[in-house]
Design goal:
The protein has 362 residues and is mainly alpha-helical. Helices cover 55% and strands 5% of the residues. The chain folds into three domains: 69 residues, 434 Repressor (Amino-terminal Domain) (Orthogonal Bundle); 177 residues, no CATH class; 38 residues, no CATH class. The chain has 17 helices and three strands. It has a three-stranded mixed sheet. A hairpin with a 3-residue loop joins strand 2 and strand 3. Helix 5 packs across helix 15, helix 6 runs parallel beside helix 9 and helix 15 packs antiparallel against helix 16. The protein is elongated, with a radius of gyration of 24 Å. The relative contact order is 0.09.
Length: 362
């Protein structure tokens, strides 16, 4: 990316993160940088001189070198979708993108400073994917190569991180579940909304995003976005609850008790809705039987509450793992004199006094 283009994107990002309009940023500089000039900068038409750069950095509370820091990850290159029937305003979408950009970049930045090589993962993916069976077979192959067999997955997040996928959790708006992509073109990552309280849904979201990570470049060009989402759902369902288990537990039963479904839900960490849909996919339920379940759920509030209640308890306590690891890496870089106290304070969003008080070297 050319310096002028890089400066344009970074300036706009910093302004939006500060919640400022172009007029607002101009006011923060004491009107020494006009709205029109800022507009030209963000359009990549001209470059600011050193004096103006200092004024902009102070107004936006970022170091001058921020404006020319190469993108290790560009959230604008990753599609962010929202659930149906959810309205997320442009402002909330912009703030979400900024949060994602900051969270991922600061982590990769400290890895680069420490010289940590992030290993990717290798999985053979079909050149063209158009059918659910292909995604199901892909899930089976991953389970095989990762040594999972048909066993439950205690912690989905741990599993992904153990296989070289960075998993971030951020404060996102209602309607946003997660995204996935690559940093520096080869480091796989996903970002999940930390406000998803339902454990089964959060686990399903992780696996759904893993499907996107693997298959986005292989989906048949004729598939609609909705078709792609359904294929990713099929993958996620197979990863959490292998079809062999479904067949073994329910394949020969003409009647199934809710208590049986709850036992599988608590064991495999997958929702009853997803289990029922797998019945349809595997032919255990025909279309009429599946429709009957949906009608009962949508017309009987008590039944709906019963089947939608979250029951799975993750064995993992790593919710803040990335934050703790990030702090550890920053202090490691400080101890090795790879960064200054001011840089560490800026990265951890704290004071230099706090950094120096906590920095102990042996």
């Amino acid at each position: 990316m050319e310096p002028k283009e890089l400066f344009a994107k970074r300036l706009k990002q910093a302004r939006q993160r500060a919640g400022l309009s172009m007029d607002g940023l101009s006011a923060k500089t004491g009107k020494e940088v006009s709205k029109q000039t800022i507009s030209k900068y963000e359009a990549g038409k001209t470059m600011a001189g050193s004096t103006i750069l200092i004024k902009l950095s102070k107004a936006l509370d970022v170091p001058v070198d921020y404006f020319f820091r190469p993108f290790t990850f560009d959230v604008s290159e990753v599609e962010i979708s929202f659930r149906k029937k959810t309205s997320v305003g442009v402002k909330d979408q912009t703030l979400l993108k900024i949060r994602i950009q900051d969270e991922v970049e600061r982590f990769i930045d400290i890895e680069n400073i420490l010289g940590i090589e992030s290993g990717g993962f290798r999985v053979a993916v079909p050149a063209q994917i158009s059918q659910p069976i292909q995604m199901i077979m892909l899930a089976k192959e991953i389970r095989r190569t990762w040594g999972l067999g048909i066993s439950p997955i205690p912690s989905v997040k741990n599993l992904l991180m153990e296989h070289g996928i960075k998993v971030f959790e951020i404060d996102g708006p209602e309607g946003f579940d997660g995204i996935s992509g690559y940093a520096n073109d080869h480091n796989p990552l996903m970002v999940i909304n930390e406000n998803i309280r339902n454990t089964e849904r959060r686990r399903f979201t992780h696996m759904h995003e893993l499907a996107h990570l693997l298959a986005n470049t292989s989906f048949d060009a004729g598939l609609s976005k909705q078709d792609q989402e359904k294929l990713c759902d099929a993958f996620a369902s197979e990863m959490l609850l292998p079809s062999e288990v479904v067949e073994r537990e329910f394949g020969r039963k003409s009647k199934i008790a809710v208590q049986e479904l709850k036992r599988v839900q608590k064991t495999y960490g997958i929702s009853i809705d997803a289990i029922i849909y797998s019945f349809k996919r595997l032919g255990i339920f025909n279309e009429n039987r599946y429709r009957g379940y949906c009608i009962k759920k949508n017309t009987n509030p008590k039944f709906k509450d019963l089947v939608e209640k979250s029951l799975y308890i993750e064995t993992s306590s790593d919710k803040d793992y990335n934050d703790e690891l990030f702090e550890e890496m920053v202090y490691s870089a400080l101890a090795q004199e790879l960064i200054s106290s001011s840089k560490a304070a800026q990265m951890l969003n704290t004071s230099i006094m706090e950094i120096e008080a906590k920095s102990q070297v042996f």
